[in-house]
């Protein structure tokens, strides 16, 4: 599903965000990427969605070499990869339904299709009864679940979750992780970037550890080792 070949990302002479990363992620895996702040975790996410281009090496997703992807092709890539961020990135003046629908509208989605798909993904995240509310009228955990629903509207093959529990208490964080596990069971490849030691150790899934831009550990059934 995802292959990185000798990937290096250089921001300046003294800063290599990624150093010769080699990585193979199979379809349907649930992977945690861990490491301290500034070690390269988020840079990996940015290279996978075409936000950053690598300086050396090659990235292949689903057989598509995206190493030198053009700006015109990036929207096509991002319809195959759902992304969830720590700060939700919801539009406060739109209802929860409208926030999720907006992700389809900007891609030219037809109104009939939007009316069908949005309630479906909102049901998956357990918010079908709150679609008419605004972000400030629901909890942080519910806002993150809206962000997950928004990431699912294009039925992505890959879901990237960059610190999705960073702004949540432990109860809401656990609910978000359980939701990601449920989505993974549907066959979606899930890549979780996190600082949360407790969550990583409880998952008992594959763990990649990044330190100073290097992939220093790849554990099939891993723990948070830093």
Structure report:
This protein is α/β, with parallel strands linked by helices. It has a single domain (2-219), classed as P-loop containing nucleotide triphosphate hydrolases (Rossmann fold). The chain is built from 7 helices and 10 strands. The protein has helices at 41-48, 74-78, 96-105, 111-124, 140-152, 170-185, 197-203; strands spanning 2-12, 15-25, 30-34, 56-61, 64-65, 81-84, 158-162, 189-193, 206-211, 214-219. The strands form 2 sheets. A 6-stranded mixed sheet has the order 6-7-8-3-9-10, with helices on both faces. A 4-stranded antiparallel sheet has the order 2-1-4-5, with helices on one face. It is globular. The mean pLDDT is 94.
Annotated CATH homologous superfamily: P-loop containing nucleotide triphosphate hydrolases
As for the number of domains, it is: 1
CATH class: Alpha Beta
> How are strands sequenced across the largest beta sheet?
6-7-8-3-9-10
> Which percent range describes the beta-strand content?
25-35%
Structural shape: globular
**Low-confidence parts lasting 5 or more residues at pLDDT below 50?**
none
| Beta-strand segment tally | 10
Our Rg estimate from Cα atoms comes to 17 Å
| CATH level 3 topology | Rossmann fold
How many helices does DSSP assign? 7
- The CATH architecture classification is 3-Layer(aba) Sandwich
H/E series: EEEHEEHEHHHEHEHEE
**Structural class computed from helices and strand pairing:** alpha/beta
Mean of pLDDT:
94
Classify the helix fraction into a percent range.
25-40%
Largest sheet: 6 strands, mixed
- Calculate the terminal CA-CA distance, rounded to whole Å: 27 Å
């Amino acid at each position: 599903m995802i292959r990185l070949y000798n990937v290096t990302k250089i921001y300046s002479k003294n800063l290599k965000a990624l150093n010769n990363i080699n990585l193979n992620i199979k379809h349907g895996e649930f992977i945690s990427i861990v490491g301290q702040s500034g070690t390269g975790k988020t840079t990996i996410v940015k290279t996978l969605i075409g936000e950053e281009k690598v300086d050396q090496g090659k990235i292949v997703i689903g057989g598509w070499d995206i190493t030198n992807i053009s700006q015109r092709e990036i929207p096509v890539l991002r319809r195959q990869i759902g992304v969830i961020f720590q700060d939700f990135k919801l539009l406060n003046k739109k209802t929860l339904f409208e926030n999720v629908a907006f992700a389809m509208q900007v891609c030219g989605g037809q109104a009939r299709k939007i009316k069908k798909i949005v309630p479906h993904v909102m049901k998956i995240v357990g918010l079908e009864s709150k679609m008419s509310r605004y972000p400030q009228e629901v909890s942080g955990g519910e806002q993150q679940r809206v962000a997950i629903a928004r990431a699912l509207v294009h039925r992505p093959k890959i879901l990237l979750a960059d610190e999705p529990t960073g702004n949540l208490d432990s109860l809401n964080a656990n609910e978000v992780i359980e939701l990601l596990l449920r989505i993974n069971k549907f066959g979606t490849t899930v890549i979780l970037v996190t600082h949360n030691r407790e969550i990583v150790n409880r998952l008992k899934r594959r763990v990649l550890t990044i330190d100073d831009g290097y992939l220093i550990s790849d554990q099939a059934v891993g723990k948070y080792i830093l």
